[in-house]
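User: My instructor asked us to take a sequence, write out its structure as tokens, and then describe one feature of it. I'm not sure where to start. Here is the sequence I was given:
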Amino acid sequence: MKNVVVLDNGACTLKICRSGETVVRTVPNSIFRSKTERRKSFVSSRIDSCKDFSSLFYVLPFQKGYLLNWDVQRQIWDFIFGKDVLNLKFNETSVIVTEPHFNFASIQESMNEIFFEEYEFNSIIRINASTLASHQYSHDNPEENCCLVVDSGYSFTHIVPYYKNRKIVEAVCRIDVGGKLITNHLKEVISYRQLQVMDETYVMNQVKEDACYISMSFNEEMATCKKKGKENTVLRDYVLPDYTQIKRGYIKPVEESKKPNPKSKTQEQTIRLTVERFTVPEILFHPSDVGISQMGLAEGILHSISKCPEKYRPHLLRNILLIGGNCLFPNFKERLEHDVRELAPDEQEIFIILPPDPTTYACQGGMTWSNSDGIKKHWLSQRDYQEGGQVTCAKYFPDI
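Assistant: Let's start with the prediction itself. The structure tokens for your sequence are:
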């Protein structure tokens, strides 16, 4: 078997797995610059050595979902492929690397050149993360030919239907809502109501992950937030990190959050969270709440399925697969199931699958696929690239 590396090259995180390993590594796909530590830079997972995460600058290779800052991305790849992480021998290694849907030809060509001419990998496959997830799903459920992948990541949410692991291109749907927009909206709400946190992206991303959830009954929870005392079950206080005693923020226990804010002996700084806990991630289901004139998740799913051949539609509704970091919000699966059920025909069965770790599921799918015979025809070798160049790449990686 080849020495294979699967690189799920997300806009926020890189998910990496290599042949012989069972664990998927997740590292940040960014360079961090600190205001406090003499403008020191931290590449990807080296951020773990940072002592003060306040006011970190993110230097991102991706802009609006597409890889544009090649110098930054190369620094991160050099670190990942180097001795500190994977320690690769490029000429003996084959790589499966993901790219966004609707990627630009110029970006694809640059990626081909870097992987073949600079790193000199033995062979590569360039593919979408949702396609790898489809391969994993078909491996786990061999009796199913259809699968609808909902990939809600950092920049976008894509809804992609598959038949026998071939995506139905004309039915792919994109919603311009992702984790970055949700974090930015939370920063704006907190800054307007309580505390200036527009420069605290790293911390507010943690607040989003720790405190936000998807509401199962939006109007009822809004009414709950107007109540006082113990009846307000939504209100919670979040203790912000000070990077001396508190390294990471946390939600206070319910009983402590209900009390008026006394002067703390430890001088801890808190923010009080109520409606923003569920109104901010609600953008996924109603993008119009922040002025984005697009369908929400449930409407997008039904719209995508309506673009598929009629004979596939019941099977797609029965095999909806959730991947991406936004699927980790509490109640995400249940709310989506409820909303899709309301819109779908009554006679059709709906089943939504949330993997144990939706962020690494695609990477696992790449490794599973690499062990199958079906992948052999998709590898583009160094020799074939040298002979045919970019024309050969276009033939090997159309829309697999």
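For the description part of your assignment, you could build on this observation: The longest strand covers residues 3-9. Try explaining in your own words what that tells you about the chain.
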